[in-house]
Amino acid sequence: MTTETLATPVTPPAPLSIAELGEQTRALRGQVTRAFIGQGDVFDQVLLALLASGHVLIEGVPGLGKTLLVRALAASVGCTFGRVQFTPDLMPADVTGHAIYDPKAERFQIRRGPVFANLLLADEINRAPAKTQAALLESMQEGQVTIEGRRFALPEPFMVVATQNPIEQEGTYPLPEAQLDRFLIKVVIGYPGLEDERRMVASVVNGKIAADLDVSQVRPVLSQAQLMAVQKAVAAIRMDEAVTDYAVRIARTTREWPGVIGGAGPRGGLALARLARAHAAVDCRDFVTPDDVRAVALPALRHRLVLAPEALIERQRPDDVLAALLHKVPAPRQ
Fold it and tell me: How confident is the model at residue 118 (pLDDT cuts 50, 70, 90)?
């Protein structure tokens, strides 16, 4: 089966230097924070996933700016934006698209779904049943979708940012482990600090932002082609064998840790390596250190752990397990 394309291919420009890479990431941050006030650590983690060409799962209660963040990010990199509001009655074709008969042409035409975008926001993904959640699996893993037996390539670059409500909330369906593992990173977003919340309220009063997710102040600092060049430069950052071994040992230790019945698979170690390279790039370095691996361990692995019932009864969280694990796994000498 051949793969068709509905988008114009993007040719990346020449590779970037580390200095240029750092300058681009600082410019991105400056533009996004024009619309997305506060929550700097949340944006930093999403930025790492973007640089590492990965998908993001954001967990938090409604109204914390998750949609605004993705819209602002898409505007800052000159990318197309798609959004799917997941509901219990959403069908897979509502995400990927479907074939519709054109009586004039006497043939079926492909009507593209919202997945045909550079940045796709899958809003409240855990409000839809597993069948619809699974519609994203092929697109996230392979960068393509299948419609009526025909495969279509998605535009490049392609990134899914899915949001979910805390699982304790009514009307939510837990994401299957196979889908969780395809997210490079899980970000937990909480309520903003006092000063940030004051700034938000003051901005609304002053007419600087509106309730309809205004990102008009955000200017593109990268084109799609430039973003792909940035991602290519990040993937080429050097990671020594000792640091690679450290990342692998962290991932493997999660499988043997007391109170964990399901640890991180091989994708966990790959996620650590990819995100550690992105972390080094943001720090304007062309090599990865053990500190980079430690810095990304929680967002890279927290959604890949399944805790035993007794650990849950003791109110342990994956973050608690990972924090203890990082103290036990020895890091290589720098």
Answer: very high
* Superfamily holding 10-209+220-229: P-loop containing nucleotide triphosphate hydrolases (3.40.50.300)
Query: What pLDDT, in 10s, does the model give residues 133-179?
Result: 888 877 888 888 888 888 889 999 999 999 988 766 566 777 878 78
Please give the CATH number for the structural domain made up of 238-328: 1.10.8.80
Give the Cα separation of 84 and 117 in Å (integer): 11
303-328: per-residue pLDDT in tens? Answer: 999 998 998 888 889 999 999 999 99
Task: Give the domain ranges of the chain.
Answer: 10-209+220-229, 238-328
Per-residue model confidence as pLDDT tens digits over 225-242 = 888 988 999 999 999 999
List phi, psi (to 5°) of 328: -90, -35
Residue pair 154/7 in contact (Cβ under 8 Å)? The answer is yes
Q: Which residue has the higher pLDDT, 249 or 215?
A: 249
Q: Are 48 and 292 in contact (CB under 8 A)?
A: no
**Full strand arrangement of the beta sheet holding 3-5:** 3-5, 150-153, 144-147
CB 40 within 8 A of CB 192: no
| Residue 208 burial (CB count, 10 A) | 15
The CA radius of gyration of the chain, in Å to the nearest whole number, is: 20
190 three-class SS: coil
Nearest one of 86, 92, 89, 90 to 164, comparing CA atoms: 86
**Model pTM above 0.85:** yes
| Arithmetic mean of pLDDT, 200-213 | 60
- Rounded-to-integer distance, Cα 239 and Cα 219, Å: 33
Sort 84 into a burial class: Cβ within 10 Å, 0-12 / 13-18 / 19+.
Answer: buried
Decide: 3 and 144 in contact? Cβ < 8 Å: yes
Cα 153 to chain centroid distance, Å, stands at 20
